Amino acid sequence: MDKQKKKKISRYSLLMAVMFTISIVIIIRLVYLQVYKNGEYEDKANVASRHFVEEKAPRGKIYDSKGNVLATSIETYNVTFSDTKNSKASFYSTMNSIFKILDDNGEKQKDEFKLQYSKDKGYYFEFNVNSDKTKKALELSFKRDRGITDFIKGKLFPDNDSGDLNEQEQKQVDEEAAKVTPEQCFDYLLCTYSMYSDLSNLSKSQSAELSDKVSSAKSVKEALNIYTEAAKQLKLKYSADKLRRYMLVKDALKMQSFTSYNPINIAENIKKDTAFIIYQKLVNLPGVYVELEPVRTYPNKTLACSVLGYLSSIDSSKKEKYEEQGYDISNDKIGVSGIEAAFEKYLKGTKGGKTIKVNSQGRQTEELSQLEVQPGNNVHLTIDAELQAVAERALKENLEGLQKSHDTKNATRGAVVVQEVNTGRILALANYPNYDPNTFSIPGLLTDAKIKEYFTPDYESYANAYIAKNGLNKTYDDLFPKNSDGSRNDQYEIYPKIMYNYATEGLMPPGSTFKPFTSLVGLQQGVITPSTIIRDEGVFDKYPEVSGANKTYAPVCEEYMLNHGTHGNINVSDALKVSCNYFFYETAYRLWKQAGGGIKGLNAFADYAEKVGLGYNLKNKDDAGTGIEIAEKFGNAYNFDSFKENLCLYAKFDLVSALEKGQYGQYKFVPFDIGNKDTDSEELKKAKNNVKDMVINRIRQQGTSANALGYNEFVKSLKEPLTKVASLSDVYKEEIKKRSTSVNSQIEIVAEALGQFTIYDKGRAVTTPAEIINASIGQGTNQFTPLQLAGYISTIVNGGTRYKAHLVDKITDVDGKNIDEFKPEVLSKIDISPQNLNAIKVGMNAVNEKGGGTAAARWTGFPIQTGGKTGTASYTSDPKVQASVGRAAYGVYVSFAPLDNPKIAVCAVIYDGAAGNNAAPIARAIYENYFKEELKKQNYKPQASYAYDPVIAKEK
Fold it and tell me: Which residues form the Penicillin-binding protein dimerisation domain (predicted)?
């Protein structure tokens, strides 16, 4: 008994000793951690729970010249999500709750994920671009950003430890990535974003087993199949839509910048009531919060959209550039056009934020420091919002009226520019069609349908409707031919481009609105005077050097063309009034002769064109422009160098068209394969380009001191290069085989045709004075924007001072203090004699107000004297081509007022407007608003009912 008792006591004592020892160890460890290591672990805990939360700065405001707000910022509610320990643990239940709240309250989840799903299409990428090449590039970028290309690289080159690939290896990876289908991408992300393991409740070992299978797979295809099989199981339990909603959040977290603690947005611009519902439930929604964020807004919607521009997300290709400037490319938006882009550095403001402590749910527990937000600076425009509203409405209503007429039914595009004559300030700049920039800045408004409408229009549907409406014998491919990259080309400019700034970028022939310029040069150079009389003989064929020995070039005056009458004896003012072509043909001929004839004489317009803003020196092409702050194109008036360059630009297209058609002039031959094709070998491409370069280089030698080959020598030099193309082209070999003819005999004919094309046709076109004659009435290569035309008229009627066109008066800070101010800037000057200026103004006044004036019917009853000039500019020199594609002439109209002391100039352009006077009512509506106080005193009743009271939104 004693022995057994002793044994029991011994076991008990041993147990107690062990427990005591363990307790002592625990106590010592606790003392060590809480006393000796307290500071270190406290610091670690504090660092882990500290985050800097950015606060976006509101962009600066954009005002019109009278202080009306055109662009400002408002605060909207966003639902955000932070990736924390607790939010990860309850991610799916939290998302289910949020999705239900959003759905019940009619809110939309933020969706910028380019991998889409629909029951009809299944899984697909939606990049909203027309070019197949661009689509492929964007798809590759999508896959690269999400690790798919790295996954492929690991499978293809498992022994590559450095990670660097040579060009051939990278090409192999990209080609393999292109084979990965949208659904395979989705399945891959389901697994790599842990959605498969989480939603399938896999253990760590089961998840590891999946990873091991993928790692052991011997090919990309085998590995992707493993992901697909896993995803199939998940898709049996959850709908594709539900899985994609989860993925939107997972992907945003993946793509989020790692430079700061920024939650991602689940939903943006939600209603206030929805925000309060979420606020009340935050305790059960780990990681979720509702935040206020400044959002750009344009209170007048479409008003001045082509001036203001719009905002957009930052292109990933520009990531480094903008991150260096402090932008968060995953969330920030920047100006991409108009004033928003041009003055981005002033408008963007400086972000602020706060350093906070958060708990395990991602909730703020303490604010440690605050960095104040600095709003952007304000931009004050020269634009007069009321005048802008009148210009836009007048343009729109005028177009709608013209569309009811058979001759102008395609008048769907146009532009208006109003410029201060003595400062260069732009008071109005309107385009139609237009857009609402709110669509791009306010979350939820930029739908897929809007993106397609703006950037990838349905050309096919439009073409079919257009062909039917106009009764054309054309096809979709005729009107919108396919480019090599798969995109479509609107080669006849028939589609109304919503995002296009016709006012600053739409180059078109000026037609007779160029005649005041021809008048100016003729008067200033003394080849005509205000009293010079020229007899209009109808057909301009009296100079052999212009019309040729056989009078093959013999332009006519409109009067003669219409009814075989002429204007008889006429001076410059009357020639402007009735738009007499013959008078200006003769003036141009005299200028050509005065300048020395030949090549030298072809530059008779050049110096004056530069000084009035209708031209530039090719040697200083980078300086060409009106000076306006937003994007523009800048056309050049006819001169020898610009005409030759323009001819060379289009000669390649003409050459390809002629050779592949199998006929040029009197020469007929087997269609010659000269156009570049994707299937061409590099050697064939090089051979084709060599032939084309030979032709272009020979044309460029015209009028130079180069020892250029004559016709026979040039034809002979072409034979070997043409034979090289023939030997390499399977297409051409097949054509030769079909016709049972010899290559050598065909090369002889093709070479002679190219000799005719190059030496006689294009070559002589470069040096003929017929082109300066044609240019004198605004045809030929003369092409300008409405902005250029308004500026040139301003320059003439103010006496010869060309001002820089500008849209911005000043920049102010948030307190209204001036940061920068922009005064009128003189770019060039011509000393126009008073007599010459008066002759031009009298003629332009007669256009509007005298019997027989080409726009006089549009100005009946208007009490303020004005000047104007109509222009009916052909879309193409061939009327049959113009009619065959449904085009009509441009309706161009320029004007200024008042006559004696001009204050503003107007240019209005209507595409397919048929006649210049069709645009004159737009100018009248503008004058009715601009001179409204004076007109009210005269009890004048405006023709445009809206001229006196346009609606402009006031800032609340």
Answer: 55-368
Any bridge partners for residue 296, and if so which? Answer: 73
- What is the structure's pLDDT at 38? 57
Mean pLDDT of the chain: 90
Q: Are strands 667-668 and 663-664 parallel, antiparallel or unpaired?
A: antiparallel
List all residues 6 or more positions away from 359 whose beta carbon is below 8 Å from its beta carbon. Answer: 49, 365
Q: Give the model confidence (pLDDT) of 666-698 as tens digits.
A: 999 999 999 888 789 999 999 999 999 999 999
d(Cα 925, Cα 395) in Å, to the nearest integer?
Answer: 10
Q: What is the pLDDT of residues 827-870, one digit of tens each?
A: 999 999 999 999 999 999 999 999 889 999 999 999 999 999 99
Distance CA 409, CA 769 (A): 37
Q: Residue 907: which of 631, 503, 398 has the closest Cα?
A: 503
Strands 826-829, 663-664: pairing kind:
unpaired
Dihedral class, residue 560 (left if φ above 0, else alpha if ψ from -120 to 50, else beta):
alpha
SS3 of residue 506 by DSSP:
coil
Q: Under 8 Å CB-to-CB from 542, ≥6 apart: which residues?
A: none
> Would you say residue 9 has pLDDT above 60?
no
- pTM of the predicted structure, to 2 decimals: 0.88
DSSP for 95-128?
Answer: HHHHHHHHHHTT-------SEEEETTTEEEE---
Encoding tokens for residue 372?
A: 């104040």
pLDDT tens per residue across span 553-570 = 888 877 766 776 899 999
Q: Examine the pLDDT at 326 and tell me if it is beyond 50.
A: yes
The Cα 422–Cα 863 span in angstroms is 23
CA dist 64 and 67 (Å) reads 5
The answer to whether 522 and 595 have CB atoms below 8 angstroms apart is no
Q: How far apart are CA 107 and CA 620, in angstroms?
A: 55
**Distance (Å, rounded) from C-alpha 891 to C-alpha 879?**
16
What's the CA gap between 514 and 209, in Å, rounded?
A: 78
For residue 367, what pLDDT is reported? 57
Identify the band that residue 313 occupies on the pLDDT scale cut at 50, 70 and 90.
Answer: confident
Output Rg (C-alpha) for the chain, integer angstroms: 36
If you ran DSSP here, which 8-state letter would residue 539 be given? B
Cα separation, 296 vs 74, whole angstroms: 7
